[in-house]
Amino acid sequence: MRKVSWGLLFAACLTLTTNAFPQEGDARILAARDAVRSGDRNTLERLVQQQPDAHPLDPYVRYWLLLNKLARPEVPPTSELSEFLMQEAGSMLAERLRADWLRRLAKDGDWAGFMQLYPDLQNPDAELRCHHWTARLMNGDRSALSEVGAQWHELHDAPGACDTVLRASISSANVSSDDVWWRFRRQVEGRNAANARATLEWLAPGNGGAFDQAFKSPSQYIDRLPANFATRRVGRELALAALVRLMRDDIAGAHARLIRLQDRLEGNERAYVFSALALRAAWTQGSEAMDWFRAAGDVPMTPEQRAWRVRAALRNSDWHAVLDGIDQLTEDEQSLPEWTYWRARALREHHRQAEADALFARIAGQAHFYGMLAGDELGRPFTARAGETNLSAAQLHQAEEDPGLQRAMALFALDMRTEAVREWNWSLRGQSESFRLAAARLALKHGIFDRAINTAELANPNGAFDLRFLTPYRELIEPQVRNQGLDMSWVYGLMRQESRFVVPARSSSGAQGLMQVMPATGKWVAGKIGMSNYSQSRLADPDTNVQLGTSYMRLILEDLDNHPVLASAGYNAGPGRAKRWRDAKPLEGAIYAETIPFDETRDYVKKVMTNTVIYAAMLDGRPQSLKARLGTIAARPDAR
Fold it and tell me: Is the pTM of this model over 0.70?
């Protein structure tokens, strides 16, 4: 197979951008970047004073110098900061500098200054929103506490910046003790021991040692509870925390201890533990899940618990419980495509076909997992509209001349990808569909495939398939697909989800390249296929990466009933888990996907299979059925 020089190819893709700016200007930007990373203020000062030919990234040099000054203990240079914000008004750098300055003001306790600067911040993060509440409170605006109280249930994992207003909300009775105990329970469930312990101190000071015992040795803690533990709420809540902690490792042991203690717990407390047990059982496809959800009754549940009550019913083919569970979702949750589809399926099972068809029609035709399945139920297999996205020369020119996109392209040319993506995304805010499509076309022109895909998807999530479902590197991929006997649409569908065709992509877990191959997986596959001279560094080579990735797809496909749903789950979470997630009986492929316990893998499998259908419709030129591709998942061999 002919080798491709990927470095030369990428350089060619960026020729226009790179040649548009003198090398001296690029060198200055890179030198400034290195200086800010090393904290070299003198170099930054010198580079700011230089007056080279205009470069689109000149503001970055000043921004980095101001960032360096904000990080130092001396008083921030207010006039310099304000001047930059005025000169770069509306830019991504102005937004970031304003956020950095606000954090410094909060650190210094300058709440009056904070209140003056905050109104022009366009996208505050959770930390800055908390600081804003604090600033309002410190400036005498106690209505901030009412807002905190109204959003209390969304703040159980709030950053430490919220502690001041959270505690003030408690002391001012804007939230009840029940609300605070609710926060404690959510933090225990989320394994956030430090935050749960802090919340407990707000409620019952002096019980931190008991909490540590309940969290570290839950079975021993429960078995050694004194006879009078239930006389105070803190005693009961610590017992509940120990039960919730125990069920992660020993669900049967937690249930047995709940039965032993239940007469000393209040009714809503028993129901709470049953809801936690039910969620745990649903994740592991335990047969007790439905019984425990019923035992929980109408106790308030988290969104996750409400969703898994429906999924457990799907797994059991209990369509009456599916309907009942969806009815107990919030209105916003019920309107989501997944629950619209499953409600329609449940209605059809109850011979209410007209109602079912009306719900299917509501989402059919939308280019997502449930829209395709709804279309299949109505006899409308998915069709990708042919032809390219049509844009005028003027629309394309507008994107090419946009200052933010120009900065992003210059950053991509310098391999400053993180900054480039920020600039790119900032430039798309509030823009029209045509501008975003033109920006996607610009990204494609320069070989920046992930921006082309994501931008076109933002512009038109149900169309623009020529920009959203690209087939780059085909001369590299197609021979490997033939060699492995794989479906080209599935390979592209999986690769699109893995890397968006970014060659140097690297995940936080260490997966690399177009197919996001893990080092250990690469070594194992190399041994299986007899690849000589394999080393981990070769994962960065696209040829090797695709060879290993497609070989792995074939190996796990053969090991998983030659079923692409199972193999997709196995590629993401490991083939062993994909096997364990099967049922004791044959299971509809859509239900298997819906009941994958890992959020990431559940979303991944749905998207890979949806991508596969769209690629097949485009590559084959014929309507495609998602339901047919999902098929049926065979029962576990040990259950046959």
Answer: yes
